[in-house]
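Sample entry (339 residues):
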Amino acid sequence: MIMEIRRVQVTGGSSFVITLPKEWVISHKIKKNDPIALSKKPDGTISISPTITEEITGKIKKFILNEKINRTYLLRQLIGAYISGYNSIILSSKKRISSDVGIIVRYFTQIAIGQEVIEETNNSIVIKDLLKPTEMPFNVTIKRMHLIVKSMHEDTMQSMESKNKKIVEEIMIRDSDVDRLHWLIARQQNIILQDITFAEKMNISLTMTYTYFLISRIIERMGDHVVRIAKNISKILDVRLNKEIKQKIQISSNLAFEIFNKSIGSFFKKDIISANKNIESVQRLENLCEEINTMASEYNGSIAISIGYIAESIRRIGEYAEDISETAINYIISIKDKS
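Predicted structure, serialized as C-alpha cells:
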C-alpha cells in the first residue's frame, strides 16, 4: 500500500479539511453528500471507511484431507488455524471422511473455546467460531488462569499430607483448562493484529493486548510445572521422607506462589514498587530450592531425582512469577510515558 501525503487546510476559520484521493472515491462510487465513516484507533490513527454499516467478514481456512491421516498432525493444524484467528475451518475429502477425523474434530471442539461443528457430510466438515472476541475480556481470562493455577498448586501441596495419588489426574484436567484459555488469548491477539477495530471494541490498546498475551503464556507454563510437581510428589508419597525436607518443599512452594499472587496483583494495580519487591524476593526462593537439592542427595536413585524435579519446578515457577513482575514494570512505564 502506497502512503499519500496530503496537507490539512482550514476553512471558515475553525474547520480542518483534507481531500480524499480521487481514485479511491471513484472506486467506491462516492458521490456528493454521501456519508463517510471515521474511526479513531487505539494507536492514534484514524481509519476512513466508505460505508457507515459494519461489515463482518470471516476468515476461512480449508484443509484437503488425503487417505493417510496423522491424527496428531491434524489436531495441531486445527489448533493452529484457531489461534491464527480463522472464523471457519473446512475439512474436505474426495472420499468419505474417516471416523478418525471425526474423533479429532470432536476433541478439537472440546478443547478450543467457541468452536462448533455446524455442518457435516460424508465429504466435508465445517467448524465455526461462535464466540465473539469481545465477549471474553483479556483481564477476566488472565484472572481465571491465575485462580486455576493457584488451586492446582494448593491441591498439589495438600496431596503430600493426604497421600492422594489421584490428584494428578484432576490437576492435569485443570491444566488443560489453562491451555484453552491461553489459546483464546493468543487467538484474540491475532484477531486484533489483523483488524484493529476489535481493539477499539474491547477498549484495549495494542500494547496492553501484547502484555496480556505475554502474561498468559507465562501462566500457562507455570501450570505445566505444577503438573510436573504433582507427578513427582505422587512418586514419593509411599516414601518416608525426612520431616525437614517436606517442610522445605512446602515453604518454598508457598513462597513461589506468594510471589506469583503478588506479581499478578502488581500488574492489575499498576504498582511498580510492589513489582520490584517481588523480583527481589526470588533470590530467597532460589536459596531454598538449593537446600532441597542438597537434602535430596541423602536419598537413593529415583527418589532423589523426583525431589530434584520438584525443587527445579518450584524454582521455575518463582522465576516465571518474576517475569510477570518485570512485564508489569515494562507495561506501567510505557503507559506512564503516554499519560
